[in-house]
From TrEMBL:
Carbamoyl phosphate binds at R55, T56, R105, H133, Q136, G261, P262. Pfam families: OTCace, OTCace_N. Catalyzes the condensation of carbamoyl phosphate and aspartate to form carbamoyl aspartate and inorganic phosphate, the committed step in the de novo pyrimidine nucleotide biosynthesis pathway. Residues 3-145 form the Aspartate/ornithine carbamoyltransferase carbamoyl-P binding domain. It is an enzyme of class 2 (transferase). This is Aspartate carbamoyltransferase. It catalyses: carbamoyl phosphate + L-aspartate = N-carbamoyl-L-aspartate + phosphate + H(+).
Length: 304
């Protein structure tokens, strides 16, 4: 298994499949009376979060604790970071504490790569700027496989704010590695420079893509990262690129709807679609724990 998980480019098809297969076994422990495994007893996992996150931080914390690891939650707010401590100084502190793994979320793209050069332990990227979010891509692929039985050959539409989405970047490359076909659907203003080089098709017409899609992944419009007007209005965005009940009826009967959360209900996705039988949104949260257990197990304990 790889030493660090900084990008989905660290994962070849066999390694990614091993994570998904291991996550399936980890999911089976959720039904046991005693959910804990002793695999990482005596290991220390640090959650180093420079950005707010509920789902990802709690998911990693639950995953580490179910593997019997000691968990330290480090928030930038109220810490030495708020007093001006650099990432490198924080890294040296974690090194001195003997952290076996550091799960980092940071607003700066590339921060996990820098951290990996400063500490001896394993570094797992839990989201860096607008760059990547590899464990989200893994849990999304796991959710597709759990619902549809496979990833290879699926037609996946990723819709919305691709420009600011680390989830989109990681999903495009991981799904390509696993044999799926991805189409990005967004207004031209919300597509990044260089998207033509990504292993995905691009469309500006959601209605044209839906009838042939096995999976539709709606992305959150990230208002906090926007400094300019990328579309005329929220109402206009919802009209062109929102998934409402009428559009959902154009999907094949077996198709599923995904969203990495948190959602802007009524903007990129209608409440009745988010809460429908097609939706995997709640499952994605539960699957995140199993997938992150698998990542920690394989990187810290599986081959030890």
């Amino acid at each position: 298994m790889i030493r660090h998980l900084l990008s989905v480019s660290d994962l070849d098809r066999d390694t990614a499949t091993a994570v998904l297969d291991t996550a399936t076994r980890m999911a089976d422990t959720a039904g046991r009376e005693v959910k804990k495994l002793p695999t990482l007893r005596g290991r220390t996992v640090v959650n180093l979060f420079y950005e707010d996150s509920t789902r990802t931080r709690i998911s990693f914390e639950a995953a580490a604790k179910r593997l019997s690891a000691d968990v330290i939650n480090f928030s930038a707010k109220g810490s030495s970071v708020s007093k001006g401590e650099s990432l490198k100084d924080t890294a040296l502190t974690l090194q001195a504490m003997g952290a076996d793994a550091v799960v980092i979320r940071h607003s700066a793209s590339g921060a996990p790569h820098r951290l990996a050069g400063w500490i001896d332990g394993t570094v797992i990227n839990a989201g860096d700027g607008t760059h990547e979010h590899p464990t989200q891509a893994l849990l999304d692929a796991y959710s597709m496989r759990a619902r549809l039985g496979r990833v290879a050959g699926l037609k996946v539409a990723i819709v919305g704010d691709v420009l600011h989405s680390r989830v989109a970047r990681s999903n495009v490359h991981l799904l390509h590695t696993l044999g799926a076909h991805v189409t990005l659907v967004a207004p031209p203003t919300l597509l990044p420079v260089g998207v033509d080089a990504w292993p995905a098709d691009v469309s500006f017409d959601l209605d044209a893509v839906l009838p042939s899609s096995d999976v539709v992944m709606m992305l959150r419009v990230q208002r906090e990262r926007m400094t300019d007007s990328y579309f005329p209005s929220e109402r206009e965005y919802a009209r062109r690129y929102g998934l409402d009940a009428v559009r959902a009826r154009a999907l094949p009967d077996h198709a599923i709807v995904m969203h990495p959360g948190p959602m802007n209900r009524g903007m990129e996705i209608a409440p009745e679609v988010a809460d429908s039988a097609r939706s995997t949104i709640v499952e994605q949260v539960a699957n995140g724990v199993s997938v992150r257990m698998a990542v920690l197990y394989l990187m810290l304990g599986g081959l030890a």
